[in-house]
Structures are given as structure tokens and as C-alpha cells.
Amino acid sequence: MSSHTTTRPPAARPPAARVVLLTGPSGSGKTSLAARSGLPVLNLDDFYKEGTDPTLPQLPDGGGADWDAPLSWDAGAALAAIDALCRTGRADVPVYDIATSARVGASGLDLGGAPLFIAEGIFAAEAIADCRAAGLLADALCLRGRPTTTFRRRLARDLREGRKSAPYLVRRGLRLLRAERSVVARHTALGAHPCAKPEALARISAAGAPNTVGAAVSS
User: Fold this and answer.
1) pTM attached to this predicted model
2) Cβ contacts of 3 within 8 Å, gap of 6 or more
3) Which pLDDT value is given to residue 218?
């Protein structure tokens, strides 16, 4: 009888945490909802490209960079941070100043052992396919509401924080008001579940329940 034995390669180690990707139009309430969840939060807007980056997409009317186009965002760096958080519980992330369109520092985000965290931003839907394929996705949500409400909330916030000049913010706000339904439709097509805040909070809570953590959403 042969003494040869076959050894199987060890199974891939599952990630220590999974991510809820939270997207939606600018001003839809992603940041406040993520804070209400009580979970660690990765701010994906900190992965914007800098204003001097030659790859920034431009508005067709010559009004400068198109900060609402996915190509204005460093998807590779954002995905790397999500992967590191899921697998090691920690990641170094940039600190971005929207008013100056520049990275002004870096910080460390530590999950503190949490098995679930939220990555929120207007480009979060761009990461759905990669996170699902890597087994990192717990859920993907797109906040939606009345476009006029979103317009008012967004403009008030952006003016209060001095994100850009007032004329630019008004023009951007009107452009996004007209495009809001198509933005939600695109995020939905990429795999995000469209919902209002109460349902989003309920799904986040369900994703964090002991019997659901570890099972990536497939719908």
C-alpha cells in the first residue's frame, strides 16, 4: 500500500469585517445616517483626486472640473482601504479638503474589532462589484428622497462649509437637481438597493446581526 498522502491547501482566511456601501446623490443624508448607525465609518469623499491632477474630468461647458463624475475619484485607493479594513481592521486614509481640492493630511482608521463598517460617499456604488467579488460586501444601499429636498439640503451645507464659490455651488446644485433621478438609477443598476433612511437603518442593523455578518449580499 502506498504511503503517499494528499494534502489540501488551507482554505482562504475569511475577512475579519465586511462593509456596507452607502451611496446616493450629494446631499441625500449619507454622512448623518452613517453617524446614526453607530458603526465605524470610512468617508469615501476623502479619496477625491487633487485639483491639479491632469486626469480630472471637465465639465462640457468649460466650468472647471466635474467633481460629480466617477473619474474625479481615486477608486483604486478607496478599494485598497476597504480591503485593508476588512482584512486587518485598520487602514491609513487621506484627509481631503473640498474647498481647496487637495489632500491636507492622512489619518488612521481602526475598526476596534467591529465586524461591520460603513463606507459612504457619492461614488460608493463604483465599489460594489469589486467588494462583492472579494467577499467583502455586507450590503449596498442608495439613499433616495425628493430631489427638491436634496437640492435645498445640499446647497445649504455647501454654502455653510464654503466648499466652493457660491455661483459654482448654485450651478452645480441645479445641474444635480435635474440629474438626481438618473443618478439613483445608475447606482441601482450598479447593485445598490434604493431606499429612504428608515429602511437603510433597518438593513444596516440586520447586516450587523450575529447570524448575518459574514454573508455577503447577492441581490
Assistant:
1) 0.82
2) none
3) 42
Encode pLDDT of 184-212 as tens digits. Answer: 999 999 999 999 999 999 999 999 876 54
Residue type, 202: A
Q: What confidence score (pLDDT) does residue 90 get?
A: 97
List, in order, residues 6 or more apart from 106 with CB less than 8 Å away.
92, 93, 94, 95
Question: With contact defined as beta carbons under 8 Å apart, do 24 and 45 qualify?
Answer: no
Evaluate whether 132 touches 13 at the Cβ level (below 8 Å). Answer: no
Q: How many CB atoms lie within 10 A of CB 59?
A: 15
Please state, in angstroms and rounded to a whole number, the distance separating the CA atoms of residues 121 and 215: 23
Full 3-state SS string of the chain: CCCCCCCCCCCCCCCCCEEEEEECCCCCCHHHHHHHHCCCEEEHHHHECCCCCCCCCECCCCCCECCCCHHHECHHHHHHHHHHHHHHCEEEEEEEECCCCEEEEEEEEECCCCCEEEEECCCHHHHHHHHHHCCCEEEEEEECCCHHHHHHHHHHHHHHHCCCCHHHHHHHHHHHHHHHHHHHHHHHHCCCEEECHHHHHHHHHHHCCCCCCCCCCCC
| Per-residue pLDDT tens over the stretch 35-54 | 999 999 999 999 999 999 99
Q: Give residue 105's region: left, alpha or beta (phi > 0; psi -120 to 50).
A: left
Q: Where residue 143 falls among pLDDT bands split at 50, 70, 90?
A: very high
